[in-house]
Specification:
Blueprint (H helix, E strand, L loop, with lengths): L49 H18 E5 L23 E5 L4 H5 L4
Antiparallel strand pairs: 1-2
């Protein structure tokens, strides 16, 4: 459903701005059918840990982006469309470079690590 051009404009591209709230989402995505995506399932068999998983995901991602600069390793290119996706995405190495950010004076006095 997520890869169908009937449901999404530019369906084969990773475009996170398509999931912004209605008042901030670009007009080109207004015909996207975002309601077809149900990554945690629905109803009686839906994931019990959805709220905990989403909270943990936000926390981990925020800390990762706050602490490190991330970029692909030289000569490496990630093509998400080459990964097989059945119930979960096929795992392959994703080679990236991680560099510890240098905090500004303001950041170091705000109590953030």
């Amino acid at each position: 459903m997520a890869m169908s051009e009937r449901n999404f404009h530019r369906n084969k591209e990773f475009l996170p701005d398509r999931f912004l709230p209605d008042n901030n989402r670009p007009v080109r995505y207004e015909m996207d059918r975002r309601n077809v995506l149900k990554p945690f399932g629905l109803g009686a068999r839906g994931c019990l840990g959805k709220s905990v998983a989403l909270a943990e995901l936000r926390l981990v991602l925020a800390r990762l982006v706050w602490t490190f600069d991330l970029k692909t390793a030289p000569g490496e290119q990630i093509n998400w469309l080459d990964l097989k996706n059945y119930v979960v995405v096929q795992k392959r190495p994703i080679k990236i470079r991680i560099k510890l950010r240098k905090l500004s004076k303001e950041d170091s006095t705000s109590g953030q690590p």
